Known about the structure:
There is one protein chain. The protein is of the alpha/beta class. It contains 14 helices and twelve strands. The strands form two sheets. A six-stranded parallel β-sheet has the order 2-1-3-4-5-11, sandwiched between helices. Strands 7-6-8-9-10-12 form a six-stranded mixed β-sheet, sandwiched between helices. Helix 12 (255-267) links the parallel strand 8 (249-252) and strand 9 (277-282). Helix 1 crosses helix 3 and helix 6 (83-98) packs parallel to helix 14 (302-323). It starts with 9 loop residues before the first helix and ends in a 5-residue tail after the last strand.
Amino acid sequence: MTEAVSRPTLEAVAARAGVSRATVSRVVNGGDGVREPLVERVRQAVEELGYVPNQAARSLVTKRHDAVAVVIAEPEARVFADPFFALQLRGISKELTAHDNQLVLLLTEGRADHARVARYLAGGHVDGALVFSLHLDDPLPGLIRNAGVPTVFGGRPDWSDGTPGPVYVDSDNRGGAREAVRHLVDLGRSRIAHITGALDQTSAVDRLDGYRDVVGDADPRLVVESDFTPGGGERAMRELLDRCPDVDAVFAANDLTALGALRVLRERGRRVPDDVAVIGFDDVLPIAEEADPPLTTVRQDIEEMGRLMARLLLRGLAGRTRDAAPADAAVSSVVLPTTLIRRASA
């Protein structure tokens, strides 16, 4: 066990800079009313002494914790197995780090964890929350609203509790799906199937709607529900081939689902794209490029989605600090465009 090292104090900084303790406090905590020459002297003294502000004391002055909770409504095994979450967290982390904020990651393994997350958020440990991968019957939005925590959501919300005007960042899931299926039609494919994501999430519903926008009243047997995982893609592809052996194209709800479908098509001796063309969604690298064959897919900028979520929250918090307005009053939701990336699978 090592002995605790004595940390420099405000008084020590004040003595080094030749100013009062109150002046140091105002500079360190971002207050106004200090002349620039004095600010520079304080900053130099802070650097020389290696002074680190006490966050608890600073929070009493600024009413800010410089910490943001990231709540992912998925089990731990799913979060760490799906690169989508890593990309979104990377975008969030970059934006928070650029503004000297800490990321606090909260996962929900099941309903028992919702109350724990709500208690933590209501306890005043963070300034706001970024929440994504919600399911349609998830109680988290209501619990977070009751906790009074400024929040930005990842993905288009579809609340059933009457929550008004949530701020969110999403991709054009429906438009991207339309573009993918139109590409398959342009290739001359006539038996186009869709392996959906989990239909209790709006992204999966929007992609299914985009598919239906193009195929109209296609054979309902060509739609099989899955869960955004490779295993789900395998199960769904087997079911599709058993139901409709003449299927000649598949639009999968994400790249991981498409990988599972590709594996089953190889097992069944179907050539891709000669016999069956396959398109995914996400363009997660290197997965899409290293698929066999390389995957045609709909690109969404997942990392940028994370950046924008954090940016919108921080902007709202800044507005709240200035004039006590609600955190979402100065910001509006964002829907990012998608792009079809053509590779060898379709």
